[in-house]
Amino acid sequence: MTRPLVALGASDPMVVLRGLEAALAGGPALLPVAEGAPALPSPAPAHVAQRVALVVETSGSTGTGKRVALSADALLAGAAAADAALGGAGRWVLALPTHYIAGINVLTRSITSGTTPVVVPPGHFDARALAEAVDRLDVGPEAPRRYTSLVPVQLARVLDDPVATAAATRFDAVLVGGQATPAPLRRRALDAGVRVVTTYGASETSGGCVYDGTPFGTVRTALVDGALELAGPMLAEGYLDDPERTARTFTERDGHRWYRTGDAATTGADGRLQVLGRLDDVIVSGGEKVPLGAVERLVRELPGQDAAVVTRRASGEWGEVPVVVTERALDLDTVRAHVGGALGRAARPADVLVVDALPVLASGKPDRRAVRTIADPDGAPTA
């Protein structure tokens, strides 16, 4: 049994909302697409398996393109567990693109709560526009709470604006995910009275399923040789027309189906999950392994460096070296001392590059391929 797959441009969130409502009710499966974005190499099929309600295209910030197939059951299970973790259903402000899973989640949770999200105008994020959206966010007895979902760079812009910050304190929760949230940014938000909840997940898990380091609902976590795996009812069916990738990424064990995230993780002293970064985002510098994600977290602890990105550069002497790319001035000796004191000499950045604007994807995440090209134009991959 199959059903049609309908592609809809994601520039109008209300069109995507109606398409998602139909898909969750058993109508045609939905493929939201970013208008004007490069297409994946192979065209999407006209039909998908009956269980598939939503297909999310993602090129990722570093990897190759894929189409993640999700069932209505997975999406609704994730939404229900998230609402329970947050304290109940609510009305949402939508500030993320609806061709990404985080934006789609806002729509899904609006549908399940019987509400309509207030939309921040698409395009370049404006913190004042978020504040205006909060003013339009009337709540009712069916969903008396207020929520929004942001990426860290959006949260930083909100906190830079006193009016937007005051508006953000009116949310019962501000979900922040898509990438690691710098600890100083989180502290800054909490000190300002913004109830931040850091999230971890992927399109393959119907979005965030770990809140503040704790898996919600029936989500399970496992560390296999330091690599994070997740299990639960919110897992994707797999990758559309890519059985080999599906078999590599999803596995059966102990009576559960597991998603291999590709991230390194550990459990802190408080029992909370700590994601350390991509397993493949490690360089060898002078014969020593250096996890770039760990370097980036340390750099982002420095004042004004919430959005800094650490990438790699080829080095004839060391093999590869870390490089910081940032929008704000940063003294190289300061960052080298800060990173070296925690991770050792090999992890010290070799350079700091200050740019007018960091390249980002439509989701708000850093475009790491473009950042690497800035740092190493001769050595960065072109495809």
TrEMBL record:
Residues 295-365 form the AMP-binding enzyme C-terminal domain. It holds the Pfam family AMP-binding. InterPro entries: AMP-bd_C, AMP-bd_C_sf, AMP-dep_synth/lig_dom, ANL_N_sf, ATP-dep_AMP-bd_enzyme. Residues 42-211 form the AMP-dependent synthetase/ligase domain. It comes from the Bacteria. This is AMP-binding protein. It comes from Curtobacterium caseinilyticum. The lineage of its organism: Bacteria, Bacillati, Actinomycetota, Actinomycetes, Micrococcales.
